[in-house]
Amino acid sequence: MSEAAAPVSPSAPASRRRRLALAGVSLVAAAALAGLGASWASGSRLSELPKGPVLAKAIERGTLVVGVRRYPRPAPPEAPTPPEPDGFDATLARELARSLNLKLELVGLDVAAQEAALREGRVDLLVAGVPTTAAPKGIDAAPGSYDTGSGLVVALRKGRVQDAEALRGASVCVGEGSGYAGAVSLRFGAEPHSYPSSVHAVSAFMAGECTALAEDAEVLERLLKNDEWRFYKPLASGLRPPSDAAIRLPQGDAASRDYLAAALRQWRADGTLAQARGARAGNLQFEITLLKDGFICHS
């Protein structure tokens, strides 16, 4: 998509400003993620790798069906939005479908429905961050994380938690499927509170529902440069998720599992992962800025 988000004039009516702001969210996301996979599949040797039953079935139907996280985006209070697929999950799913030369069907799933959808064959693969349970029965995971990166913990400058040691027992807001939930629990003895998305987690943190916030460092470093974030400070850096954000598939398909592992290696090696993470950081910063500016509230 070549369109760009139009600037919102301060003199425009409030309703028009909201509509333009919401349009900006969609356009910024689309523009940032457009074209990420053009080089990912081209010139690769993924096409030469064998495909097991899971991927062979998708190839036969001509469509790869991928389950992803979903949640409502920011919206005016009088017009809440329905849940939509997570943009980062969708980007990886799109690259996988492109590498197989298949159409993509995204299925947005609440966390409670994800494993059942995979077991029952309603989706071929599941791309939904770090699983809440370890090695569920009947479900396998391709080796390698598709969401690598260093995490950061922030808190109020004048809050009760002034250093990382004081995080023990403290509540920490995290997005659903975030590997930083396990990181703050294991490293600091903190109590992670999960929310449907990173935007939900940031909104909850700013509303005082948690003592601290754990998120990708690239996202928080951008936010901390904003004037309205001068009330917050970094507490701990270098967080590494103890578990992988893995592509999950039904157990017993070694060939498809190996193909996905190779795809993840290429996703990291050719820079597509870095581009996708940068796009995600920019999109989150935009949505969170809209929340803070009062254009919209979060559903």
User: Strand content of the residues, in percent?
Assistant: 15-25%
Order of helices and strands: HHHEEHEHEEEEHEHEHEEHH
* Ends apart, CA distance between termini: 27 Å
> Which second-level CATH architecture of the largest domain applies?
3-Layer(aba) Sandwich
According to CATH, the homologous superfamily of the largest domain is: Periplasmic binding protein-like II
- Helical fraction equals 25-40%
SS elements, strand count:
11
By CATH, the topology of the largest domain is D-Maltodextrin-Binding Protein, domain 2
CA-based gyration radius: 20 Å
Count of the domains: 2
Quaternary structure state of the chains depicted:
single chain
How would you characterize the largest beta sheet?
6 strands, mixed
How many helices does DSSP assign? 10
Keywords: Signal
Organism: Variovorax gossypii
Protein name: Transporter substrate-binding domain-containing protein
Pfam family, one: SBP_bac_3
